[in-house]
């Protein structure tokens, strides 16, 4: 169908960019950061001659651990961008209070125009949920779960790499939208009818559609892979009921993902047909029903909330027992609670639009279903509390993050119960009280993520993160969370609605100013985190882990491997005796990492095919956004040809002979022994290695 603005057969709608004004200083600043950062990275890789290493060891890898780390890196980069946009929103609102507030950079009030701040709201939500939190969590699932269940890799290593690169393409397309064109202004949920072509004639909604579609495909194939890995790749003796809770939350999460993301794909496909060929699925004036879109979106959207919160619960269930020096209280009930949350997640989507007038019977059903989520969630909170009760609780950095996450969960859960009551929801719907609530829930995930980063960093890289800077990072982040979101709850009660570019009530300014103080604390916490990374990497030799168990009281199977684990994870498949296998072995004095017998190890070969697929998928998404028909067709041909090429590849795996495995194992363990002996000579300690926070770690 015809579209507004210039268009031609060769460049599609790209001539539209000539009509856009690229004089926004924020755009110039962001472009400068990207250009300078890109030049710096390319320069360093060239100077140190690392291009071959990067291609061979990372970009073409199918090793689940490296794929997991790359997922986390992509997520952290997008998290930084999403945070920058959140800072812009909060500072703008604090400046745009009252009719006398001045305007800057073309804005009547504050420094962002209404259209620009609507874009920022949309891209902030899209990034944080789909391109930051989700990749980080999937990265930890990739990194930890195969080792935790005693597997050598994922069930489908090639498919695992494809999922990573599809997610990376979605993130890259989002970054391109910052400079080439614009982004959607219709909210991250795609508020209809704003997403229709008549109300959004530009390419912003198209960017939003293709970014989500590509990332959703990556999430779907990743979910399939993780489910297959957990169900079919467990070590001997690793029964389902012996699986660690993080593996259980991963299983529940990916069952949700596998069954919910196709709903999102369908909803956006129908929206694409409305925009591209003129159908009327969601256009009320054409016989469609935009509430059908809302139902389809939230049928995915609310299970997605548990898709991201359940892995965080898994992190807490690994960290709290380790630093309480006790088994997790009632392992079986935690499994039941996990699967209960996953099941109920499908029954609550309508609480996102109680005010649509569905009637008292429908609202009552969804209100009760929403409150039911509190039962299995409460089971988890009480189990974590009973795990700490009479335990030897050590307040090391990962435990601080975990305890803060539990406190956030209590606050977020209580406000969630309030919003589950339709009468309260009618009053507070579309207010910043709701915004504070769901940010409260996502802060649970953020605290759990940083706890997991600190907890598993020694396992992934072989050295500890700097503890002092880690604690500074934690306290700044905690203070920032309090200063930003406690005032937001209060503003919600006072009647402030969401997505405002102008604040009409000057009396709200003190609370908005408190939010800006919170943002400043967040900025300081980010600086502490970056400094922590730098110092830790710089001093990695002094902070090296001397044993397989970085915390000495860890409990699950991944701590049976060296730090970092070899690319094949286990020289011989471990026999599992307990749901806390490493703790069981420690108690029975079976802590040797040397296998009694070595066998050949079968491993997949690296492949460049996922990277090539990513190239064609990027072209496909860009062509779809700008309606460049020839490039769209060419990219589909390229994707198809690449997949056909892969189908006919024969040389995709290899065997490592048992003798070679034994030699590599002996070298790794000898290096560990040498480092431990060196630590003894340097510290003068015969039994214990370096002391961290009053707790000695055995050398």
From TrEMBL:
It is found in: Cell membrane. Residues 49-577 form the Cytochrome oxidase subunit I profile domain. GO terms for molecular function: cytochrome bo3 ubiquinol oxidase activity; cytochrome-c oxidase activity; heme binding; metal ion binding. Pfam families: COX1 (PF00115). The chain crosses the membrane at residues 26-48, 69-89, 121-145, 157-187, 207-231, 251-273, 305-323, 335-359, 365-386, 398-421, 441-465, 472-496, 508-531, 607-624, 630-648. PANTHER family: CYTOCHROME BO(3) UBIQUINOL OXIDASE SUBUNIT 1, CYTOCHROME C OXIDASE SUBUNIT 1. This is Cytochrome O ubiquinol oxidase.
